[in-house]
Amino acid sequence: MKQAGTEGVKGGGASASPSFPRWRLVGLATALIVLFVDQVSKEWVLYWLDLPLRRTVPIMPGLNFTMVWNHAVTFGMFGGHGRWLFIVISLLAVVGLLVALARSRRRLVSLACGGIIGGAVGNVIDRLRYGAVVDFLHVHVGDWSWYVFNIADSAIVCGVGLWLLDSLLVERRSRHV
């Protein structure tokens, strides 16, 4: 017989019940950490470093902080048309990712969802606050230059990469069974 109020609690800590494994909590924590670091970094470059006025600040060979107000989507696609459409699509994707996270049975998928969710929400906050996404990380070598991006973009790309890696590992394991 269960005692009232003790379901899923071990030693007064977080629930470790099979219905909500710890790695899902890690996914949620990842989303919150990504969101926090993304927003703090943007506040820092905008208001402490004053990057909009300075435009570019060399950090080290191959890396500058360069101010770009991105009115478009990833890699400048769609030229910034439909700000509200981008916000709605991003928020729908976040809802879908939260469902995927809640159903996730694998650690890498949970981490991937967390990174993508945190990054997507960070960029939505920018669109709501500024009408554009704050991009400032500029990687370059000689005449070659990558797109200017931010922490949120990095988390989204890393999250997609983790999810792909997980898919490859699952496929590989299924061949060996």
Q: Describe the sheet with the most strands.
A: 4 strands, antiparallel
- Arithmetic mean of pLDDT: 86
The rounded Rg comes to: 20 Å
Helical/strand content category: alpha+beta
Note the beta-strand portion: 5-15%
Q: Helix count, per DSSP?
A: 5
Got a strand count? 4
Relative helix content = 55-70%
Euclidean distance between termini CA atoms: 40 Å
Oligomer: single chain
- Name the poorly predicted regions: 1-16
Overall structural domain count? 1
Gross geometry = globular
Q: Secondary-structure element order, as H and E?
A: HHEEHHEEH
Explain this structure.
The structure is a single chain. The chain is of the alpha+beta class and 177 residues long. It has one domain (29-175). 57% of the residues lie in helices and 14% in strands. It has helices at 22-48, 51-54, 83-103, 107-130, 151-175; strands spanning 56-60, 63-70, 133-141, 144-145. It has a four-stranded antiparallel sheet with strand order 1-2-3-4. A hairpin with a 2-residue loop joins strand 1 (56-60) and strand 2. The chain is globular and about 55 Å long.
